[in-house]
Fold:
Amino acid sequence: MDVARCRDDFPILTRTNQGKPLVYLDSAATSQKPLAVLRAEEEFYRHQNANVHRGAYELSEEATAAYEAARARVARFLHSDDPDEVVFVRGTTEAINLVAHGLAHGYLRKGDRVLTTVMEHHSNIVPWHLLRSEIGIELEFVDIDDEGRLRMDDLEAKLSKPTKVVALTHVSNVLGTVNPVRQIADRAHAAGAVVVLDAAQSAPHRAVNVRDLGVDFVAFSGHKTLGPMGIGALWGRREILGTLPPYMGGGEMICEVHTDRVTYREPPARFEAGTPNAAGAVGLSAALDYLEGVGWEELAAHDQALARKAVEGARSRFGDKMRFYGPPLGRDRESVLSFSLQGVHPHDVASILDAEGVAIRAGHHCAQPLMERLRVPALSRASPYLYNTPAEVDTFLDAIGKVFQVFAS
Structure:
């Protein structure tokens, strides 16, 4: 892929950070936005802005058509043949909360087991904790091995007991681990469980085919996938999605409202109360066009090359004073590079790198159970993406060298 040409599409990359050229290595937190996305949102507000589904006039009909075309685009992205299986939400967090709330009303009862993993983002832990407090479900966690892969023996052991929901991430936001989702989904379904998949970290990097994955729900966020903040999608298998009650009440999601009763529309409208983020949906559609235009194989090769350069460069320059976490790089590992530096707190690492123009993440990465499992208080994380270059990896490694110089002095 032509990285230089790609970078021209991202205007923010021309700015400086602390007076130095910006090296943005925090795409696992949020990706930058190409001109195609910025223009799509602007075009909507300039020429199509109206409330969708509600106006019997041309402008509203155009806005509605653009919004529903975006839904169809997301369905194609997920390889679903039914756009009505796609619900627009603010992001992965809202999507998983919507599912948890829905399953708590009729499917889950006191004492039912929900199984998740220690590598989950808090977005796929806290909603289930809420149900433990509210209705008394049991919540258990599948462990990982020392390389950061799920322990399938532990999964099997825990699925040997009655389980109603299995909720897991496709790709770890800390370790980069790519989980064997189809294998897990098949085993979970054999045990009678519904499977909820967090695809926030996989959607930006690889094809997400809901039919091949064999799960019941998939959630992803637009802002990690080159799209706007405040928009994301929940895909739900139609026969299960249709059994869930509304998540919020208000306009647009009803059939009729009377003083003594309310009736609700079928999905997806049932879950989209109020005025939706139509411009965000249009921007997300443009982002998916851009991302798929790059090509999954080209993107994977680029990301892996950057990650390998970083890991090999760190090994040759810093030896065992810089430790990376997660499985070895390869097809079952995305290019999320969480690391620790001997004798240096991650927050200090991030601060010194910031002074060099390099933006990385530091902290528990909304994954405190995983930090506890790894026996670390926090980690630093660099997450290269399609607009990063080998030269920026060199800048990153040079900045790491300055961290060691500062603490050596």
In short: Residues 28 and 383 are 6 Å apart (CA to CA).
